[in-house]
UniProtKB/TrEMBL annotation:
The keyword Cell membrane does not apply. Keywords: ATP-binding, Nucleotide-binding. This is ATP-grasp domain-containing protein. It comes from Pseudoduganella armeniaca. GO terms for molecular function: ATP binding; ligase activity, forming carbon-nitrogen bonds; metal ion binding. InterPro entries: ATP-grasp (IPR011761), ATP-grasp_RimK-type (IPR013651). Residues 107-294 form the ATP-grasp domain. SUPFAM superfamilies: Glutathione synthetase ATP-binding domain-like.
Length: 326
């Protein structure tokens, strides 16, 4: 029997290469051939097949797993779509990945499925000034969100109409429209819940703000183990189901006004490995995040191996489920 082939494109900064190696080794012990030493941004297509810069045909893979938020670009998106069109199963598949990658589209889908999201609007760059004034006046505060950026890049908050309108006039020559959301008042931290294959992974955690309104680590926030309440976990599961996404981390805040969790973003991939993030900074690793790293490594490796029907190792025993590691 020919060995199963799996492609993995994963981030390597913040000790991501350490995580990747552990996943690869687990799959290799199950007899899989794993292609991982390449950059999707350097891949090319020839006669409908996707090749790495070194000539490896990724379209020969049985399965492809991608987890590299910061190095994505338009060409890489095309390579991912072409891999799927050439017959390779993708985790996450291109449709759910694309839905989650566009904040405007994701919000519309979540709203249609009854998932709690903040009021939002997509504004053309020829809108009447008074319409914009009425929008901000009705909400009190709004945030402008680039539709496909990560780590809160480009997100701006406005509560003064003059400042918002000046920005709008500037943006007219750069973008075809603006995606805006009503700002939800919340206290100090967000809520993050990871979902994999229809189940919550771990207990959730928070990022505590180090910014006037952003919680992202690159905006000064820091990750802290504060378990998510059950309503937030249920909201995260509903959001993942609505987008049909296998692996994600759902970002939420709890409104100070009504006490309910609101989804701010369904990320197009599962969350980074925070244990190794702390290790890369040469600071003590909080126990919860070390445990989550180990759980997610096992979860991903087992899922990928089982998905291609790779033979289980004797120590693995019966077919594995997330419940076995929880």
């Amino acid at each position: 029997m020919n060995p199963k082939k799996i492609g993995i494109w994963m981030y390597t900064n913040e000790n991501g290469h350490v995580i990747r190696q552990q996943i690869v080794e687990r799959l290799q012990r199950r007899g899989c051939v794993v292609h991982y030493d390449f950059d999707m941004r350097e891949c090319h297509v020839k006669d409908g097949q996707v090749y790495t810069k070194d000539g490896v045909n990724l379209s020969d893979c049985d399965l492809f797993f991608h987890m590299n938020a910061e190095q994505r670009n338009a060409h890489q998106h095309d390579m991912l779509k072409m891999l799927e069109l050439s017959g390779v199963r993708i985790v996450n598949d291109h449709q759910s990945y694309s839905y989650a990658n566009d904040k405007f589209i994701a919000s519309a889908i979540l709203r249609r499925h009854g998932v709690r999201v903040t009021p939002s609007a997509l504004i053309p760059m020829g809108e009447e000034k008074e319409v914009l004034r009425e929008l901000l006046g009705g909400w009190g505060k709004l945030v402008v969100k680039p539709r496909d950026k990560i780590c809160a890049e480009g997100i701006m908050m406005f509560e003064d109409f003059e400042a918002f309108y000046d920005f709008y006039l500037f943006a007219k020559s750069h973008v075809p429209n603006l995606y805006v959301e009503k700002y939800i008042n919340f206290s100090a931290r967000d809520i993050r819940v990871e979902v994999f294959d229809g189940q919550v992974v771990g207990q959730g955690f928070s990022r505590v703000m180090g910014h006037r309104f952003k919680t992202n680590v690159k905006s000064g926030g820091h990750a802290e183990f504060i378990p998510a309440d059950e309503d937030a976990k249920e909201t995260a599961l509903a959001a993942a189901r609505a987008l049909g996404i296998t692996a994600t981390i759902v970002d939420m805040v709890r409104s100070d006004d009504d006490g309910l969790p609101y989804v701010l973003e369904v990320n197009p991939m599962i969350g980074v490995f925070y244990g190794q993030h702390f290790a890369s900074l040469n600071v003590p690793v909080p126990p919860y995040f070390a445990e989550m790293d180990a759980l997610k490594i096992e979860l991903i490796a087992r899922y990928l191996g089982d998905a291609v029907g790779a033979p289980a190792l004797p120590a693995d025993g019966a077919p594995w489920r997330l419940d076995d590691a929880a």
